[in-house]
Amino acid sequence: QVQLVESGGGSVGAGWSLRLSCLASGDTVNTLAMCWFRQDSGKARRGVVGITVVGSTAYADSVKGRFTISRDNNNNTLYLQMTSLKPEDSAMYFCAADKWVPFSRLLDSSAYVSWGQGTQVTVSS
């Protein structure tokens, strides 16, 4: 099972940008289906954007046009570039991975076995 460690969270003002990183070990990111999830206090864990082994992506409607997922095999890292941040983007962000996930379940947390510990993002008005 792949191990995942997120980093890059922090506190920023609305309209600013952050890039989250998910460092993988025990497997390579280009052989995995991976997804960024977020969970705000009192809310369910929600899929933000996922990517398949072949590079197909699925974005939550709330982040389309603002967030971008990418992966770097040299660093074995999955990234989430977040721009035009809004207060409603504030959440704990988690990276998840599995060897195979059907595209229709790419944003479904129950489809993933491996999870990172999360990194906090706070966006102020």
Number of strands: 11
Strand content: over 45%
Mean pLDDT across residues: 97
Radius of gyration: 13 Å
Largest sheet: 7 strands, mixed
Q: What's the helix count?
A: 0
Class derived from helix and strand content: mainly beta
Secondary-structure element order, as H and E? Answer: EEEEEEEEEEE
Approximate shape? globular
Helix content: under 10%
> What is the distance, rounded to the nearest whole angstrom, between the alpha carbons of the first and last residues?
39 Å
Task: Characterise this structure.
With 125 residues, the protein is mostly beta strands. Helices cover 0% and strands 49% of the residues. It has no helices and 11 strands. The strands form 2 sheets. Strands 2, 4, 5, 6, 9, 10 and 11 form a 7-stranded mixed β-sheet that branches. A 4-stranded antiparallel β-sheet has the order 1-3-8-7, with no helix packed on it. Strand 7 and strand 8 form a beta hairpin. The protein is globular and about 40 Å long. The mean pLDDT is 97.
